[in-house]
User: Which sequence fits this backbone?
């Protein structure tokens, strides 16, 4: 019997497990992945998100991975191009774009160092429900054996296709249409220095982010009605899109060496899920999912992890009624997330550059 079981041990799950273990709770952290491993993401981290890692004492390890600091963003709207400094957040003044192979491993190890028990290669396939409340998980471990574990609460930190959410079927709200598809890959010899580049055109956004090992993450978002056609020739269409956005951008990407396969997604929902109920709670993409165009999925996850860790510490520690504490978590999450959510959805509609410029300015102020 654990205090807390956390399903999913990446950006949301691992820090939550770490914070609760530091408070003295017994934490079981399970993930069907093994670490280090990759997951789909262009992994840009805003300073205000990194400020959580700094506060939790794990930022130095991310910096030590050799991930280059990003101090500026060059935004090309076609009609104009501007370079602006990244907005500092907390006591962090630079953005970062660490590979998920690096970041998620650091976070999982930090949870273990704090005392959480991590079981990798463990796939959760059922929730144990007794008297209307979730009381545990059922899954298969690495050897294929069926295992049941019980805890006072089960947390779904299991990403945008959350098994926990699909099982508990929470109410959803503020649902917005899904607009975009995207593909990205990694290039050598596409130097950026300390500046991320974003190209905004009607119906398309291209991005270049500097990441670990001297590589550049190059990505494209486009309207998802073009996805089936695009995927017939991913590289050819990716390069044609770069050419059409800016001939100079196309030349630079063509001259660089692609070193990994393309990864991509047909569409991503924009939705809030009620993040708690009897014996369960949701955090990260499992609880609140949105288009990646503002690069805020992980920064948002850390803010919400911080709220949820406070709620669970008080609720499980007997300082406050658990359901009341979780209702507070939902209120805090929504109040913090909603302004940026609306700007994200506006940007995800890939409007004309003039409108996108206004939404980007508003998103910059809201973050
Ligand atoms: C194309 C794309 C680009 C993005 N770009 C950015 C960006 O630039 N910046 C940014 O901040 N965010 C970005 N995001 C969003 C970001 O990747 C997510 O917000 C973030 O990964 C959410 O973290 P999480 O821990 O909630 O879920 P995830 O990172 O998805 O982790 C969930 C974990 O749960 C595990 N799991 C799932 N089901 C089970 C199960 N049944 N049993 C056991 N384990 C399970 C999975 O193996 C996984 O390890 C992007 C997303 C996409 C799709």
Assistant:
């Amino acid at each position: 019997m654990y205090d807390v079981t956390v399903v999913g041990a990446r950006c949301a799950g691992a820090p939550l497990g770490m914070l609760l273990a530091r408070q003295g709770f017994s934490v079981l952290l399970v993930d069907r992945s093994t670490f280090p491993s990759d997951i789909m993401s262009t992994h840009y981290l805003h300073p205000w998100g990194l400020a959580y890692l700094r506060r939790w004492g794990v930022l130095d390890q991310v910096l030590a991975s050799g991930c280059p600091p990003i101090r500026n963003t060059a935004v090309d709207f076609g009609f104009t191009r501007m370079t602006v400094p990244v907005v500092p957040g907390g006591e962090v003044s630079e953005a970062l774009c660490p590979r998920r192979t690096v970041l998620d491993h650091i976070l999982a190890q930090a949870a273990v160092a704090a005392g959480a028990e991590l079981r990798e290669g463990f796939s959760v396939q059922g929730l144990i429900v007794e008297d209307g409340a979730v009381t545990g998980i059922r899954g298969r471990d690495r050897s294929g054996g069926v295992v049941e574990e019980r805890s006072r609460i089960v947390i779904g930190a299991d990403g945008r296709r959350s098994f926990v959410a699909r099982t508990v079927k929470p109410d959803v709200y503020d649902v917005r249409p899904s607009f975009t598809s995207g593909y990205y890959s990694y290039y050598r010899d596409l130097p950026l220095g300390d500046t991320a580049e974003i190209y905004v055109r009607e119906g398309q956004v291209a991005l270049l982010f500097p990441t670990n090992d001297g590589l550049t993450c190059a990505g494209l978002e486009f309207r998802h009605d073009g996805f089936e056609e695009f995927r017939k020739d991913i590289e050819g269409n990716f390069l044609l899109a770069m050419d059409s956005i800016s001939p100079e951008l196309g030349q630079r990407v063509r001259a660089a060496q692609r070193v990994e396969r393309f990864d991509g997604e047909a569409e991503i929902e924009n939705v809030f899920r009620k993040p708690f109920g009897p014996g369960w709670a949701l955090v990260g993409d499992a609880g609140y999912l949105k288009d990646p165009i503002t690069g805020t999925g992980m920064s948002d996850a850390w803010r919400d992890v911080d709220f949820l860790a406070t709620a669970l510490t008080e609720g499980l520690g007997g300082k406050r009624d658990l359901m009341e504490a979780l209702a507070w978590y939902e209120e805090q999450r929504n109040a913090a997330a909603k302004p940026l959510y609306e700007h994200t959805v506006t940007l995800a509609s890939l409007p004309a550059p003039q409108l996108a410029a206004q939404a980007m300015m508003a998103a910059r102020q809201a973050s």
In short: Residues 7-8, 10-13, 30-33, 39-44, 123-124, 157-159, 163, 182, 265, 268, 284-286, 292, 295-299, 301 surround flavin-adenine dinucleotide (CB under 6 Å). Residues 12 and 302 are 6 Å apart (CA to CA). The chain has two domains: 2-43+99-176+268-349, 68-95+180-266.
